[in-house]
Amino acid sequence: MCFTISVEKKAKEAIRKYLNANEGVQSEIDFDDDYFLVSGFDHPKLPIIKQGKIELSEWGLIPSFAYSDEMARDIRDKTLNARSDTIHEKRSYKSSIKNQRAILVVDGFFEWKHEGSTKIPYYIFPKDNTAFNIGCIYNRWTNKLTGEIVDTFSIITTDANPLMEVIHNTKKRMPLILSKSNINVWINPETDMNVINRLMKPFPEKEMDAYQISRNAGNPGINRNYPGIKDRVDNG
User: Fold this and answer.
1) What is the domain extent for residue 211?
2) 34 to each of 23, 37, 87, 172, 212, how far by Cα in Å?
3) Is 17 a member of any domain?
4) Chain-wide mean pLDDT for the chain?
5) Which tens digits make up the pLDDT trace of 5-32?
6) Are 82 and 156 in contact (CB under 8 A)?
7) How many independent structural domains does the chain possess?
8) Rounded to the nearest 5°, which phi and psi values hold at 176?
9) How far is the C-alpha of 218 from the C-alpha of 119, rounded, in Å?
10) Burial grade of 190 (CB within 10 A; 0-12, 13-18, 19 or more)
11) pTM assigned to the model
């Protein structure tokens, strides 16, 4: 699946380039924060590209049918990812995939390879040293008891490509990664659903790279948000 990502220099640069290339897109977000490693289970607020705007949104989609804080807190831990093969069927996602699609720009993401009882962390990133454009869905949830409005999103996942089959060797999934040329097609609520379905496919492995990192990356009990968390380690 995809629960741990990096959003820093390359992602912020890509967002700025998107703003410069797309006149009229509104953005009032702060680009100062770096997330060298951030977990979806912490429900961070991250910049996502929507049609005509870039907004901070909380990771962990809360669907409109959630009627209380307690229900919302329970659901959002289960909606960090939305599977592409069931997204049209799941109650939490089937409305958003129709016309509430977004892009999360990341430097890369983290995944764990299982060797027996050992979990070995890897950092996966674009081979051309740019950024990944991850396909998402979003929802603006209103707390029916307090009136509070919360923007939330979920990362879509696909079957793994050959590289990710080796790394994510248990569930064999990977985030939906879209080419730069398909960003505006994806986020346009008017795009035909047949086109959207065709876009939900594994990203070419030839455009990705990966290496093993310290096992500290898998320890949520320590501070993992520092530049060295992504340092390469010897495979031996």
Assistant:
1) 4-230
2) 26, 9, 30, 28, 21
3) yes
4) 95
5) 999 999 999 999 999 999 999 998 887 8
6) yes
7) 1
8) -70, 115
9) 8
10) exposed
11) 0.96
